[in-house]
Specification:
It is a single chain. With about 260 residues, the protein is an alpha/beta fold. It has a single domain, classed as Alpha-Beta Complex (2-enoyl-CoA Hydratase, Chain A, domain 1), CATH 3.90.226. Helix content is about 45%, strand content about 15%. It contains 10 helices and 11 strands. It has a 7-stranded mixed sheet, with helices on both faces. A hairpin with a 2-residue loop joins strand 2 and strand 3. The radius of gyration is 17 Å and the shape is globular. The relative contact order is 0.14. The chain binds coenzyme A (COA). Coenzyme A binds next to strand 7.
Amino acid sequence: MPACLRFEPMTDHIHCGIRDGVNCLRFNRPQKKNALTQEMYSALAAAIVAGEQSNAVGAHLFLGSSGTFTAGNDLADFAGLDAVPAPDAPVLAFLEALISARKPLVAAVDGLAVGIGTTLLLHCDLVYASPSASLRTPFVDLGLVPEAASSLLLPSRCGHAVAFELLCLGNALSAERALAVGLINEIVPAGQLEDKAMAAATILTRKPRQALLNSRRLLRGDTDLVRARMREEFTLFAEHLRSDEAQQAISAFMNKRPKP
Ligand code: COA
């Protein structure tokens, strides 16, 4: 970890710290491949909202751990009917915070980025990835549908063919392919990845603030459309989560069985 990035734990699994005007948010649950729990979503949402409100913060930066950005939503949370996401679910607060953010979002992706680990990148303005980065959204294989407005943002960014391949066929995208289709900005050796992302985020914090925020708002387009699609997906996702096909696929993963 670069010397400039020393964090205070916000929870055991999310570490946050403001450095040089950058709100650094680290997924820190490596023993579970940084799979995101409800508690982690709540902590992330709170940290983004706090960073948005602080004049000391000019940009946000997402970081994972060595070899893993995040394996996506914790599937144990999905493993029972009682766990169907409610309208006030922490994941919704996290997605709202992403969509409502006015300050730039930057990500450093080393290794695996599964599910929301990939779809959150669509809300980021700069994404740096190591050569081992692998982006995957196996929603359909899990009996689920896309989330985080990815069914809108991915085809508009990369076209239908790439979006369908990723969201429906479930193929993984290598770092090189992700660069070629415009999902990431640059491939950076793993040892330099966090310094590179931090340097870019720091540059953004030093730009004329209002000019940067307005330029970003113009570039990102209509957030109401993005929010509406995210909510439509969320309703459908919750319905699918109750289905036999989803419960069987999730149970197979949790019990280390091949997918049905
Ligand atoms: N939710 C809950 N636990 C997860 C997880 C997830 N999304 N991803 C990984 N883990 C856990 C594993 O259960 C395992 O726990 P254990 O050591 O207690 O058995 C640990 O993290 C290590 O994972 P493992 O599968 O052994 O590592 P791997 O390197 O062989 O494979 C992945 C890594 C990410 C390819 C694989 O874990 C995976 O497919 N995870 C599910 C990804 C997913 O479908 N995410 C949800 C998208 S909506």
